[in-house]
Amino acid sequence: MTSHQTTQTMKPATAAKKLGVYLEATPAEFQEGVVSRAELNALQTDPPAWLQELRRNGPHPRPVVAARLGISIAGLARGGVTEPLTTEQIDALKQDDPGWLRRERATQAEVRKEEERIKERNAQRAAQPRDSRS
Asked: Is residue 30 a contact partner of residue 10, using CB atoms and an 8 Å limit?
């Protein structure tokens, strides 16, 4: 009995998400086809000019915008940012430093601090002998 491997493919939206780019800004041939795992790996290891340009200048999808601003995706929505932004627009937002962005950054810093506290607490609990836990 011979086993044959089928090629694993994904929708363009999934591939764009994995590449960290905004689907609607990709070339038409990317949007209209399917992407194999091998093609995705090739795009990640040796990105073509269009992918390099999108990653550098955008427009960027919300997760990338949020990460570049140092806030959550929900924080973007609370700030009224619902559309993809270019690198230039992100830089302008950072420069303007509106009140909502300062608040969201502070909120994100608190969330990270709390996550670190919980991680340390869990590590301490894991290090304790089992019989001394109550």
From this structure: no
Work out the average pLDDT over 22-45: 90
Q: What is the mean pLDDT of the chain?
A: 88
Residue 50 has pLDDT above 70, yes or no: yes
Question: In whole angstroms, how far apart are CA 115 and each of 49, 69, 101, 125?
Answer: 38, 19, 21, 15
Q: Is residue 129 over pLDDT 90? A: no
**Residue 46 vs residues 37, 63, 66, 86: alpha-carbon distances, Å:** 14, 23, 25, 23
Q: What is the DSSP letter of 60?
A: B
Q: Which two tokens stand for residue 55?
A: 């990653």
* Cβ–Cβ < 8 Å for 22, 58: yes
